[in-house]
Design a protein that fits this description.
It comes from Cryptosporangium arvum DSM 44712. This protein is α+β, with helices and mostly antiparallel strands. It is 33% helix and 26% strand. The protein has a single domain, classed as 2-Layer Sandwich (Alpha-Beta Plaits), CATH 3.30.70.
Length: 107
């Protein structure tokens, strides 16, 4: 992932809970939102459950720069969170990551 031309980085992360772990994953994500919002450089961090698809989640994040995102991903708490998350999700963390690059039409 790289920073967008105007500096900020937008990340969409989609994941699905392992069967029977839907509530556990929702609780896990809920607990992780506030600390992530408080990380330096965070612009926006919103968790969503996909309507009509219990156990499917989307997190929308915006960071001031790639450096801020990298610092978030390397935060000491991640050493504990990532292994616990992997126990709850179906697939890998990387499989669900999408980087968005904003653009505006020419006037």
């Amino acid at each position: 992932m790289t920073a967008t031309p105007n500096g900020y980085v937008t990340v969409i992360w989609q994941t699905r809970a392992k069967p029977g772990r839907e509530t556990d994953l929702k609780d896990f994500i809920s607990a992780a939102v506030t600390p992530s919002r408080n990380d330096p450089g965070n612009i926006d961090y919103e968790a969503h459950e996909v309507e009509g698809q219990p156990g499917s989640f989307v997190i929308y994040e915006r960071w001031e720069s790639r450096e801020h995102l990298d610092a978030h991903l390397g935060a000491p708490r991640m050493a504990d969170l990532v292994p616990r998350m992997l126990e709850l999700i179906d697939g890998s963390i990387e499989d669900g990551i999408t980087l968005l690059r904003p653009f505006r039409p020419a006037r």
